[in-house]
Design a protein that fits this description.
about 190 residues; alpha/beta; 5 strands; about 50% helix; about 15% strand; globular; binds P1-(adenosine-5'-P5-(uridine-5')pentaphosphate; binds magnesium ion
Amino acid sequence: LAGKKPIVVFVLGGPGSGKGTQCANIVQHFHYTHLSAGDLLRAEIKSGSENGTMIQNMIKEGKIVPSEVTIKLLKKAMLESGNDKFLIDGFPRNEENRAAFEAVTGIEPEAVLFFNCPEQEMEKRLLSRNQGREDDNMETIRKRFKVFLESSFPVIEYYKAKGKVREIYAAKPIEEVFEAVKVVFTPEDE
Ligand code: UP5
Ligand code: MG
């Protein structure tokens, strides 16, 4: 990622809070490339890479994959995109992820979108998603919620202290959530 420093917006929130859905809306209106860390990891499993089995086991348990693995995938996708503005969805998930990304890329996020959603609503969405995700079962969902609260939420607090968090209440219809999301972006992003 030599040359001009990319602009990065981290898109965070609990499992099923709507990160992927809203990123898909954002890229239709603004010139960002959407990179879902979870999607990149699932593609890595499918590709039959040497890390595939390890990644699959971690996702099944709702655990956080070692940051070297995730950061390598993110860096590759950033380079391949040809863009310099990114929505990084579902990463960083813990303090170590965050520190490693900053150390390796030298990038600090421009802003952090935080989709705040009650667990009951997230649970309902995940159980009715029906996309065959191996982690969308009650047992794994409980683990994902626990990891979110214990490991991922502190990352949001870290950025809150830096004044970077744009918190959005996410338990509303998709279009209403997007109205609140739009405000975060500027006409220059169009
Ligand atoms: N939906 C969305 N918005 C709605 C709304 N406003 N009203 C009603 N329904 C709404 O949405 C989930 C479902 O809800 C969909 O069916 C949608 O239509 C509906 P989605 O937009 O997919 O929510 P999202 O927040 O993206 O949920 P997701 O399940 O992807 O979040 P997770 O954070 O759990 O999953 P992710 O893919 O990021 O990570 C999966 C696993 O990968 C992690 O648990 C971890 O094991 C691993 N991982 C790492 O180890 N490191 C990483 O950096 C990233 C992932
Ligand atoms: Mg997602």
